[in-house]
């Protein structure tokens, strides 16, 4: 298991339309030398989901939160999971004595659109991505570099190029592994990305 200072909690939508953006986030975290964590990394029917999320949050110094998908579903109900997990991350930083160094970036589709539904965040400098993976990667890389002050983080242009090459290679990798894109779990994706980056850098 990675050190807490290397762990990045990913709080984002998991629907089909977001999958490429999700892969871009996971890839960026790995490419920058960090370790991605999210609620989908475990599948234990005996574990309560909320307890699992709280445990993962406590083990992560950094957090990438995308609250761009809070619109109502076909039944008319909004999705509150992402804002809720963001709130847990905030609370952990402010109330847990050993969590004071937590640092997060908050994404939305269009800048300041959160003010329509989450006014408690007023004053927070969110980042917009307009559903474009290049913006998401660029701003994630810049945030990780600034917040960690690590000199080993590559430039965002290099990460974008690498991700685009990874996306070209991904179908063949999945087929060779006997998997399908639809059935790819978070752990499958993480392992594939980690192996691809290691092979490229070595």
What's a quick, concise take on this entry?
With 202 residues, this protein is α/β, with parallel strands linked by helices.
Give the SSE layout:
Elements: E1 7-11, H1 19-31, E2 35-37, H2 49-58, E3 62-66, H3 81-95, E4 103-108, E5 127-128, H4 133-148, H5 156-176, H6 186-201
Parallel strand pairs: 1-2, 1-3, 3-4, 4-5
Folded structure, characterized:
The protein is of the alpha/beta class. The chain is globular, with a radius of gyration of 17 Å. It has one domain: Toll/interleukin-1 receptor homology (TIR) domain (Rossmann fold, 3-Layer(aba) Sandwich). The protein has six helices and five strands, in the order βαβαβαββααα.
The unreliable regions are: none
**Which oligomeric form is depicted?**
single chain
Q: Give the end-to-end Cα distance, rounded to a whole number of Å.
A: 22 Å
Main pleated sheet: 5 strands, parallel
Q: Tell me the name of the CATH class.
A: Alpha Beta
What is the name of the CATH topology?
Rossmann fold
Number of H- or I-type helical stretches: 6
Q: Please state roughly what percent of the residues sit in beta strands, choosing from under 5%, 5-15%, 15-25%, 25-35%, 35-45% or over 45%.
A: 5-15%
Q: Report the average pLDDT across residues.
A: 88
The global form is: globular
Rounded radius of gyration (Å): 17 Å
According to DSSP, the number of beta strands is: 5
* Overall domain count: 1
Structural class: alpha/beta
Order of helices and strands: EHEHEHEEHHH
The name of the CATH architecture is 3-Layer(aba) Sandwich
CATH superfamily: Toll/interleukin-1 receptor homology (TIR) domain
Q: In what order do the strands lie side by side in the largest sheet?
A: 2-1-3-4-5
Helix content: 40-55%
